[in-house]
Amino acid sequence: MNSTTISICLAIALAPSIAAQTATDYRAQALVAAKAKSWAEAIRLYQEAIELDPQDPTTHFNLGSILLVQTKVKDALAEFRHAIAIQPNFGRAHESLGVALRRNGDDPGALEELKTTAKLMPDNPIAWCDLGLALKSNGDNKAAIEAFRQCARVEAGL
Predict the structure, then answer these.
(1) Is the pLDDT of residue 48 over 60?
(2) pTM
(3) d(CA 60, CA 46)
(4) What is the pLDDT of residues 103-135, one digit of tens each?
(5) Closest CA to 123 of 155, 145, 99
(6) Is-contact 146 120, C-beta < 8 A?
(7) Which of 140, 85, 79 is nearest to 107 (CA)?
(8) H, E, C per residue of 35-90
(9) How many Å apart are CA 120 and CA 122, to the nearest integer?
(10) Which residues have C-beta within 8 Å of that of residue 45, sequence separation ≥ 6?
């Protein structure tokens, strides 16, 4: 070995290792980007996290939420569905899927998701309010009024 080869080998051996980023790192960076409303960066980082850990329902949910804010409803629907496929009792994902379905013009689909949400999160007033709106959109005013009443009861802690 010549002195150049030895120098290169020593440099490689002594250099600090550069660890690859983990899905957790990407998720943390995505949260920071989202808080700064750097939506494109947050989307990119969540997609990187999903590439490394496709079975994390919260990452799919968070990505779907940003996509919904960006009015990329069809992409958001897919992410919420992924989250639910991974964790079927993920109430917030059902709720967001219901809201996205309403925005996409699928009132019957939204109604089913929001009924599920109210079952999974009976102490969440927003779930009941969203259900009331979906019921009203589907023409069931009597059930909508009851859902809004339940929203008020939950909000009041009754």
Answers:
(1) yes
(2) 0.82
(3) 8
(4) 999 999 999 999 999 999 999 999 999 999 999
(5) 155
(6) no
(7) 140
(8) HCCCHHHHHHHHHHHHHHCCCCHHHHHHHHHHHHHCCCHHHHHHHHHHHHHHCCCC
(9) 6
(10) 26, 27, 29, 30, 33
